[in-house]
Amino acid sequence: MDPQSLFGICNMAAMVGWLILILSRYIKIADIIIQKGLIPILLSLVYLYLIVGYFGNGEGGFGSIEEVRLLFQDDHALLAGWVHYLAFDLWLGCWELGDARKNGVPHLLLIPCFFLTFMLGPIGLLTYLLIRTIITKKAISYDHFKFSQGA
Q: What residues does each domain of the chain span?
């Protein structure tokens, strides 16, 4: 499939994913799609296809800003980079929703966080974490990042 067509499909899938996150409180099937991470996983499969099929075909690399600029002159590499953003930002939106439910953050406060996460990734995450801290009146804790011995 040509990069432009795949770009359109991936963008549409991401938009559907964000719409599902926004409407998840009102649509039961949305929770299943979110909890399974279906759309980010599909986007990750497209990313895998692009990396396996096209990585190394162009010039450039990751050693300097000039190499990265050269790398992304190839449409397949550029698309892979874009799909990378789409998949991870949407995965982060799914995490924000689950974390908000666990911590009692009202769904309406998530909508601006979703928009910012979609458009500006880390700024959306910072916004969500700030809102979560204000709502819960607790410092941010990453208990799920604690590793047990032998894991």
A: 3-103
